[in-house]
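TL;DR need structure tokens for one chain.
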Amino acid sequence: MEKLTYQLEAFEGPLDLLLYLIRKNKLNICDIPIAEVLDQYMAQINAAKAENMDVASEFLEMATRLVYIKTVYLLPKHEEADQMKAELSGQLLEYEECKRVAALLKEKFQMDYFVRVPEEIEPDYTYRRHHLPEELYNAYVNTLGKKQISQKPSQESFSGIVSHRIVSVASQIVFVLRSLWKKPQMSYRELFVHKNDRSELVATFLAVLELVRGKRIRVDGDHNSAKVTIVKERKRVPWKNKI
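>> reply
TL;DR here they are.
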């Protein structure tokens, strides 16, 4: 003969029974008095056994859990019991919220309940995920394949980077010295008259600084009145031995 499972009246499970006992006795669900709840819980279990009906295993498992928590509280250190009681409180709060939502859904969704046509919602295509550099690299490898990455990039792929002319500082040092060789003193601004490219302007400025540091030229004045003068080397006079 098939055994019957005792569902303890209208309770769907041990959490449902515990929640009923807590609300009935107006207990704090976040700080459950385990001893008091265990006594009432076991009274329900014993009532089921008195009717010669089998109790569902999940109810017996919860009873064992409550007995274990109560036993650990008898020890000098009961941090484990505090953690287990906090987990039980969290499960009860979650179960209570699920019951509340289920009741709301039961009221709204009936066989004769009419629903409206779903509204058209404009999709949001904003990408909000954040990726590590390693993830981006792996995605790049998987997209192009290892063979394509091992190949050397073509020269055209760097055209946008190296298309600008690069002017060296050394070439502008030669330019400044040649200009001052023809004209030993000239306006500072005159050195930049025909310099339109940014790289050329920067190289010329660095060339002037390098020549000043090497004491090859001298810059006098400031702003628009600044003058650049070439420094002439002094002739060395050989020493004569005294007789």
